[in-house]
Fold each of these.
Amino acid sequence: MNDPGPAPELGRVPAADSDQMLVERAVAGDQRAFELLVIKYQRRIQRLIGRMVRDTDLVEDIAQETFIRAYRALHQFRGESQFYTWLYRIAANTAKKYLLQLKRDNVVFEASFQSDDDADETSRQKSEPTTSETPESVLAAREIAAAVNAALEQLPEELRQAITLREMEGLSYDEIAEMMNCPIGTVRSRIFRAREAVSARIKPMLDNQSGKRW
Amino acid sequence: MGEQDMKQRELISAMVDGELSSAEVDRAIDTLESVGGGRSAWHCYHLVGEVMRGGVSHDVRRDAAFLQRLQEALVQEAGTRPAPEPVVAKFEPVALAVEPLRSPAGRPSANEARFHWRWVAGIAVMAVAVSVGWMAVPGAQQGGVAPMLAQVPGPVPLAGTASAPAMAEAVVLQPAMIRDPKLDQWLAAHQQFGGASALQAPAGFVRNATFEGAAR
């Protein structure tokens, strides 16, 4: 992949809160804007719920309920906190309500009924399996991870470095530009091309499953 | 992928990183909603980052099915509330316009707009305010209570004594009560056994005293 050279310097304006803007559109009736938020956060929400609930199907049901509740209450979101923080609370409360209901019906074991208000998704070790993981889901996740790693290995050094600094280190474009000694536009371009290359590798794996497409 | 497509996807990629201005975010969202493959790119770009950070543990191949299920639920959800006006006119309305909910019997629901609950509530508030004002403001009661008091008849004069002087004369002519002087003497002699005063002590032992202060 050829580097087209330094991209024109972008005008530096304060970065907008894209979540907030998506929320505003969704509140105004644009359901597809809300769906973009779902696509962005569904895996994090499912991972959160998966720490509280054993059953994979139940995790999905609770995640669905979480997003439906969020959609109903979207007009109450004032942007005083991050959207994900707000969503996290809804997910935790929804999961607790489900578990209480199931406990009343004696469906779940006591061990499943573990929710921690203070826990966040970073509190668990990465190697620790969640209760909702099945052998199939673990295998699928491993396949995707292997494909991503293989694609990253094949990237030109400057693309790999740019996306690694962004995704692993969490650096801003400004910081990456300074570290890589290149314009911000080039950073943006490199990260984009890295993502495109990796996405091309994993897309066939995602499309094969159920025929469902975005 | 054409040049235009590349630019649009690059915009989406920058939006994933939160590195866009408001105007650019608007443009990126438009792209995501209108360009084929935009949502797929949005999903993949987020997924790549999550996989790199080791945060994906479930079967991400079910993500699209998850969204489809949710879309169906949201369409039903949208049917239960009035669809608000879209902010951006150029958006094509999503197929959310469903029949307004009606009860099985075909009656309109209680919260249907035709009942004009806001008008009813407004009229009720005004009625309460007028009632309170009526009772609170004395001037508003002219012709109400005051005239009624004025019309209350005085003591009904006895037949033949209808005039006021006649009433006074009747009072004067009442027989005087005769008091036995022995009773007064006895009370004077036994003053100390009189009833308790307001000081809760026999009145016979209470004496008045004055004090000549220096300032006087």
Amino acid sequence: MSKQKVLSVQNLVVRYDKDPVIQHISFEVEEATMTGILGPNGAGKSTLIKAVMEILAKDSGWIRFWDLPLQKVRKRLSYVPQRESVDWDFPTSVFDVVMMGRYPHLGLFGRASRADKLIVEECLERVGLSELSKRQISELSGGQQQRVFLARALAQQADLYLLDEPFAGVDMSSEAAIIKILKEMQAAGKTLMVVHHDLSTVSEYFDKVLLLNRKKIAYGNTDTTFTQENIQTTYGTHIRL
Amino acid sequence: MNTFWIIFAGSLVAIISAILGSFMMLRRQAMIIDAISHAVLPGIFAAYWFSSSFQSWQMWLGASLTGLFSTFLIAFLQQKLRLQSDAAIGISFTLLFSIGVILISAFSADIDLDTDCVLYGELAYVPLDISDFTFWGIEVPRIIWTLLALLIAVLLLIVVFYKQFKITTFDPEFASAIGISNNFWHYVLMAAVSLTTVTAFEAVGAILVVAFMIVPSAAAFLLTRRLSSLLLLAACIGVLSVQAGYWAAWLTDGAVAAAMASASGLFLLIAFIFRRR
């Protein structure tokens, strides 16, 4: 019996001006998988997940989550932007950023309840930042900032997670902590898609890979899809593993 | 009593400006305030032309709409013509401002309105224009009531929708992902800035509004690590600037609005010396 389909993307096209960044991409993601989205710079990796989340408008194509449109399942989705996309000098604390993960559950006028605060504290605990809860976010290292974003995603209590370069610019101990949590999430039945750069860790981290260079090169199990030939097609040069 | 009303009016403008200005600064859109403050000129003229008064709601609405229009124009130039934001702002407000200047100079014989009074305002006139509504028998200048109403509206807006303003300012992509519209809250904020500029211009002038929106917020930014305390502190610095500026102007017999703007600059310098960042 095949697993439940979490995300279906059919014939997705995204353009910046007239330049097609994503060209006719189709794929389907099954429940409780962790997919590495790989490709060279400018391949459209971030664009793909932003288009899936409707942060960027798509040109054409069809996207469904559990056979439903985005608007019906928003609370089941979590998006983790690139760390550099926000200003870390913003006057706010670690706790407050993680609390933003509860916003979708609060509604238009709602305020954070005790239960929300408990969830935030739990999530901080999980990423190992409990002690830094009151810190201003500019006082954190790159790895800690990335873990704040991960804690915020955890606080959303979603089912499908889309993460844009969660390992970019983080130290080795943070990377180890982050992948450990991602694997735990997968084991708990969550579905994850992760934009990733470092080819040397792909086999270790992901059970699925999506190779991308404006078009879809390949999508499938890491052991059969992450091959020398496919990598060469994706990156256009000889890359030794 | 006159002194009290002048300082009170200035303080109200300073508080409203500090709250809105803090968000504009954090959104890196401080220059849009400058644009709006100039772009309201043709709206002020048009409304004045039709109603022959500064006090009508037509004037208020007309000017606010041109202010808001300038922000649409800025967004249009950025998105459709792919201009840098500073270029888009520069084009929008000089265009609208110059249209306003042309209109006023062409018809200045017919109406009592000049560009100086729009840009610099005249705080000293605040106590002269008394409202029909009294407070326990005390005569209250008209602008005070207007500013109080605006302050309550702005406070309500920010308190009720605090999380929406915070998240669209800090992390617009995440906001969009969880279904909070960046565009919607952007234009709500722009409308509030536009209304504030228009309401405040006749008292303190368009330039002082810009100073009150940006300088206290920038000073508070150097001193705090929380958004809520930044808003509070910016408001306090704004009020202090009003006080200090008023008495400096009184001592030197100088221009009140300019002294207040300079005072806020002095507070920025002090904040820089004691900065926590």
